[in-house]
From TrEMBL:
Protein name: Acetate--CoA ligase family protein
Presence of keyword RNA-binding: no
UniProt cross-references to Pfam families, sorted A to Z: ATP-grasp_5 (PF13549), CoA_binding_2 (PF13380), Succ_CoA_lig (PF13607)
GO molecular function, one term: ligase activity
Domain ATP-grasp: 535-573
Record-linked SUPFAM superfamilies: Glutathione synthetase ATP-binding domain-like, NAD(P)-binding Rossmann-fold domains, Succinyl-CoA synthetase domains
Keywords: ATP-binding, Ligase, Nucleotide-binding
Membrane spanning residue stretches: none
Domain of life: Bacteria
Length: 742
């Protein structure tokens, strides 16, 4: 049985929807204010995200520092000093605010924000309790504020209550708040002497962004840093959507401990995907220990990790595990041009190095095309004939030290099947490594193809690395094989995804279907439906079920068996009956009236003994050929309704071979779900078996998705298992179903 959680409808959201002239469906869920614009889908969920204009946050004209101090030794003093320096860099006028001071660092100090000589764009709150200040900011019409104070949801239940009060006050005020439990990372000094597309950074833990901030020392530009903290108001999704529309941003890097609202995150990721801006994220919580640590730090839900992972892939978010992968992948995606081809050529001075890297690249799913015979002959002009140049390409070492080195690189890049050239340099060996690095940089500047170098030296102070390679904006330089493979795979995957991206929100249904009207009358609030009732629900959405009749007597069972057709299956049907087989409440392969009569009596006897509440006995058509699958709906605490498909029958509990998606999604995603299954070969036929009707299976997945969208929270849970997929062109039949209504 699939587990579930669901949201609730807020009076405020219902009022907003009704005011727009639409009566909301009963399954509308509560969502943050930021998502309540831009149209609703069939279940009342927003289709677009309202993006806050954060220009005045990052580049304010005037700033108020509430609680400013210049008393040495106090924490507020260091923060005030740093904010003064930041304001001078961005051209903002800074106003200290403190009721007990006349001046701070020689600047006139106002007793309150209301007493300031001009309106302010940003208020920085250096106070232990920001709640009393929020109303004052609202009266002064301050658009943005930052709260550094801790002691909120990250501390437990009492802190969560305090944060809820703060969030409610902020929503009433109209002020947009960053924090609480945030830091000064938004006000860091960014280098302005670096060129090219920049990385914008979002972190819920400020310290976790330090490695990416340090990328500036390697010549990689950063434009923004949003340390979102506890996200009482402004959240990761707000900054993600804002950065996606900034012209200087080439990629967005995120460190996420928990998502405030899954739907908002997906709407923001959709905005980035529409704009073609890659998003790379570390999302902690893959393990139970990681999830617990994340909750204790930020007080947020981490969500079922399989759902998080699938949702991110669905909207093109590249998920990585380490901060080193985050920085290398984001840097490559920000700076590299779109690929001309997907083939990867590995070029090295050592056959062992090339073979090692080729293994890692192939295992990761990269394509290493064999170079043509003509291209290999050309390379053998400069490389000894006994060396392999098919791909990986081994030059034996000596050619890199003279004129041959550049000719080899140019020849490889000229091959139309090659879109990426990767050269692992496992260690410095001057002067040959110096010449090789220079040749690679010069070649990269004359090609529109991606050139990657792995500098394997643990020292990292060599001139070939620090000056030649890092001095190039065209060569992507890595320190490890694995990070290079991860980044190149993400680069190719992103551009393949972006080239064919169509927003599922544009195609999401806006009005209920005729199926919904039929299905709504079959729902039983607060109940688990019997198998017979659950199958009626499937019928309403055009999902095929076996011929069957529900009977309440042995004679009725015999009469039903004729039109159903022997052999038949007989099953107990009741509103709270989930595991019939374990209780002996299923009889299979009945071929005569006497067997049907005896089976009826045995099933009803077992039901009485087990105190099972029956609505009757099902006499069903027997279908015993095909591949057993399962398709289901459950509710994720972050993302709402989700659709799962996997191998069915007992295999679903043994193998856990499933794929999941968050509606809305289209046919391509449904087929991709099947492609993710380890047992997908069963659908194509194994050991002489015929292929099954994959098109029919995809259609069932899409119909179940429509149920999830339209019935929303009213359908807490749906489990079709087994769904027997028959031979090609013969369809799919739902043999059993479980449905739970809210």
């Amino acid at each position: 049985m699939l587990g579930s959680t669901h949201g609730t409808l807020t009076t405020d959201f219902r009022a907003r929807v009704v005011a727009c002239g639409e009566e909301p469906h009963a399954s509308v869920v509560s969502l943050p204010t930021a998502t309540r614009q831009g149209g609703l889908d069939v279940s009342g969920r927003p289709l677009h995200l309202a993006v806050p204009d954060l220009d005045r946050f990052f580049r304010p004209r005037s700033v108020a520092v509430v609680g400013a101090s210049d008393t040495e030794g106090r924490p507020n003093t260091g923060i005030t000093r740093q904010l003064i320096a930041w304001a001078e860099r961005v051209g903002a006028r800074l106003h200290p605010v403190h009721p007990a001071r006349d001046a701070v660092f020689g600047r006139p100090c106002a007793p309150s924000v209301a007493a300031l000589p001009e309106p302010v764009d940003l208020a920085v709150l250096l106070v232990a309790d920001p709640l009393p200040v929020i109303e004052e900011l609202a009266e002064a019409k301050v658009p943005f504020a930052v709260a550094f104070a801790s002691g909120f949801a990250e501390t437990g239940e009492a802190g969560a209550v305090a944060q809820a009060r703060l969030a409610a006050a902020v929503e009433r005020s109209g002020v947009r708040l960053l924090g609480p439990n945030t830091n000064l990372n938004a006000f860091e000094e960014f280098r302005d002497d670096l060129e090219g597309p920049a990385i914008a950074l979002i972190t819920q833990s400020g310290h976790q962004g330090r490695p990416l901030y340090a990328l500036q020392e390697l010549g990689i530009r950063l434009s923004h840093w949003a340390p979102t903290g506890n996200e009482a108001d402004l959240e990761t999704a707000d900054f993600l959507a804002y950065f996606a529309q900034r012209p200087e941003v080439g990629a967005i890097a995120c460190y996420v401990e928990g998502l405030k609202d899954g739907r908002s995150f997906l709407l923001a990721a959709d905005r980035a995907a529409r704009a073609g801006v890659p998003v790379v994220a570390v999302k902690v919580g893959r393990t139970e220990a990681g999830a617990e640590a994340a909750a204790s730090h930020t007080g947020k839900l981490t969500g079922a990790d399989q759902v998080v992972d699938a949702a991110m892939r669905q909207f093109g978010v590249v998920r990585v595990d380490g901060l080193d992968e985050l920085q290398d992948t984001a840097a490559l995606l920000a700076r590299a041009r779109p690929p001309r081809a997907e083939g990867v050529a590995v070029y090295s001075i050592s056959g062992g190095t090339g073979a090692h890297f080729a293994d890692l690249a192939t295992a990761a799913g990269l394509t290493l095309p064999a170079l043509s015979a003509a291209k290999q002959d050309e390379l053998h002009t400069w490389i000894p004939g006994y060396l392999n140049v098919a791909n990986p390409i081994d030059n034996g070492g000596h050619p890199v030290g003279d004129h041959r080195g550049r000719k080899i690189i140019d020849a490889i890049l000229a091959d139309p099947s090659v879109g990426v050239l990767i050269c692992p340099i496992t260690g410095p060996f001057p002067p040959m490594s110096d010449r090789l690095a220079q040749d690679l940089v010069h070649a990269a500047e004359t090609t529109d193809k991606l050139v990657c170098v792995i500098w394997g030296s643990p020292v990292g102070t060599e001139d070939a690395y620090r000056t030649t390679l890092l001095g190039s904006s065209r060569v992507a330089t890595f320190r490890t094989f694995s990070n290079c493979v991860t980044a190149v795979k993400a680069y190719l995957d992103h551009h393949r995804f972006a080239s064919g991206y169509r927003s599922p929100f544009d195609e999401a249904p806006r009005t209920p279907s005729p199926s919904f009207r039929k299905a709504r009358g079959l729902m039983r609030p607060g109940q688990q439906l019997s198998e017979h009732a659950a199958k009626q629900l499937l019928r309403a959405y055009g999902i095929r079920v076996p011929r069957e009749q529900l009977v309440t007597s042995a004679a009725g069972a015999v009469r039903a068996a004729g039109p159903v057709g022997y052999p038949v299956v007989m099953k107990a049907s009741g509103p709270h009956l989930a595991h019939k087989t374990e209780l002996g409440l299923v009889k299979v392969g009945l071929t005569s009236a006497s067997q049907v009569r005896d089976a009826y009596r045995e099933l009803t006897d077992i039901a009485r003994f087990e105190s099972v509440d029956l609505d009757g006995i099902l006499v069903c058509q027997m279908i015993d050929r095909g591949v057993e699958m399962m398709v289901g709906v459950t509710h994720d605490a972050l993302f709402g309704p989700t659709v799962t498909v996997g191998l069915g029958g007992v295999l679903v509990e043994v193998l856990h071979d499933t794929a999941v998606r968050v509606p809305p999604f289209g046919e391509k995603e449904a087929r991709d779900m099947l492609g993710e299954l380890r047992g997908r070969a069963l659908l194509a036929g194994v050991r002489g078996g015929a292929p099954v009707d994959v098109d029919a299976l995809v259609e069932v997945v899409l119909r179940v998705q429509r149920m999830a969208l339209e019935l929303g929270d009213d359908l807490t849970e749906l489990d079709i298992n087994p769904l027997v997929v028959l031979g090609r062109g013969q369809g799919a039949v739902a043999l059993d179903a479980l449905a739970v209504c809210r």
